[in-house]
Amino acid sequence: MSHFEEHAEGAGPFITRLTWKPAEDIIAVWESRPARKRGVLTFRTAGRREAESQSADAVALRRQRRLNTIAALAFTVGGALFALGAGVSQFGSDTSASATIYFVGGLFFNTGGYASFLQAVNSPRRDSATGALETPRWRWWSYEPVRIDWLSTFILFAGTLVFGINLLDSFLKGLSVKELNRLIWAPDMVGCFLFLASGHLALVEVCHGRPGLRVRDLGWWIVAINQLGSVLFLLAALAAFTRPATGNLVNVNIANWGTLTGALCFSVGGVLQFYERPDKP
Hints:
Helices cover 58% and strands 13% of the residues. The protein is α+β, with helices and mostly antiparallel strands. Helix 2 runs antiparallel to helix 7 (252-273), helix 4 (148-169) runs antiparallel to helix 5 and helix 6 (218-239) runs antiparallel to helix 7. The radius of gyration is 21 Å and the shape is elongated.
């Protein structure tokens, strides 16, 4: 590999890892998730097994630490509230209490989704000429669908908003079976598929292509646990369909327990995310 010649990895149009030689006997690696989550590039000298990291500037690191803390806390609390709401629904009789707990938990999911999106929007960028990480100006929004981290977090945030529609509609009273399935069940299904799509892109990002096992990678564990939670949410949503003939759910136990266990997955993922953060400047 000659000076600044790059080797790109990823899937389809998405680049998740770049490798190049900024100098003789030095190999530099940029990876999408570590750059976004921890603000680092890695360097390895030929003949040495240990890798060294180069961090972004103090502004970027403080920014990413703050956003990571908000997202981690939001998903931890949001997941716990969803689990509590499912428990109240399974073992209690007050549906309004369960709906309220779900709604508050949904607000935390909205916050976590948007904080994750902001982290992608404002992540340190690799300068194509020097290879160093540069800090972009702060933005509340961007449109960058060719970046896998942007697309994954945008779809995640969209999913939390669709779930919000489902949670708001759950307060409506006197709905017919058709209205229940259209106003509550249908948004729930859409939100589940958006979560699954976001999680798949996140797995592609951490695996640099086809999803596989990366058991020594904390980022992989966070993404994999959240994706398991998305699968459990989908199972719960399928079981929550109201049968037109009887007016009953397909299986209320699967609906509640699927939601409870899926929510706990997101809560565990949130706790782990506290440890996937930049070092202090």
